[in-house]
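CO-FOLDING WORKSHEET

Operator: S.A.
Ligand of interest: zinc ion
Run index: 354
Mode: holo prediction, single chain
Checklist:
[x] sequence pasted
[x] SMILES validated
[ ] output reviewed
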Amino acid sequence: MKKIYRELVELPGVSSHEKYVRQYMREHLEPLSEEIVEDNLGSIFGGVNLDKDGPIVMLAGHMDEVGAMVEEILPKGTIKMLAIGSVNPVVAISQHMDIILDDGTRVPGVVGAKPPHLLRDNQTKQVSSFDDFFLDIGADNYQHAIDLGVKIGQQIVFRNDYTESADGKKIFSKAWDDRFGCAMSLDVLEDIKKEELPCKFYAGANVMEEVGLRGATTSSFKIRPDLFIAVDCSPCQDTFENTTVGGTLGEGFLIRFYDPRAILHQGMKKFIEETAKKNNIKFQYYKSLGGTDAAAVQLSREGVLVCTIGMPARYIHSTTSIIHKDDYSAVKSMVMAMLKELDFNKIQEIKNNA
Ligand SMILES: [Zn+2]
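OUTPUT RECEIVED:
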């Protein structure tokens, strides 16, 4: 995998704090694109093949990751945290987290856990919200934290760097959800040949997905796609439950046929199945309990054909996650194969096939 994947997961970018990820995206999109489109909330895309008489196809990841914000600096110099995105508070205990100061420097901290010696019997299972603990940055008191540069509203990110598994096939890191999709946009833009594209193509990433698909709502309004592809990580159930529609690591990209916010358009489903089979790309059906940016774009303007090409990932929305390199190949091959087919006739055929 290209080094953009590693560089992107290691950047900090809790929802509304996508600045460093956006800068990275801009630097890498500019040399690959004929036009850069940025909306007023900060989602950013590069367009290619724009003089083609073809439909507009849009590919997006999302820049934000789950984490926290500084809610309050307490008198003892500890930090009260506000969860951003859906994070089970249990996973935060005892973790290393960094506050990102206004100038970008990191203030390291640990989430303080009460040792068993200090717990009364009835307190052992009482972590139910971020209010049950605090971030300890080693500040002696309130003023010391202020002097270090800490301010209310700054982002707090998990520290779990990119690590390969012993067999070299899987990669552990924070923020696969969804720097994977951001990197995939750059990856595809870099490798797709203009001559193979029957469509105008925009690829990039949205802001604020984790707090309600906000960036996709505005970026798709601006770009007006005829067809939208979200590339996003979906949680695998394979280590927890036996189900064939819950995602298994290494078994191919996910056809998200159902989620509560977007049921896959039946014509799109046929198009995806046919394209995957024709190109021998491994896929699995996936039923999700959450939504992706596709749900927001589906309802943009007069309605848009959308799909999510899902990347299986274990343990997302926690402090870390795992992906498989074979699934990376499946997602990328699938996106490239779809792009080569999407002319006006294919779009019409997809609509007629519903
Ligand atoms: Zn996501």
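REVIEW:
The pocket of zinc ion is lined by residues 62, 177-178, 209, 232-233 (CB under 6 Å).
The chain has nine helices and 17 strands.
[x] output reviewed
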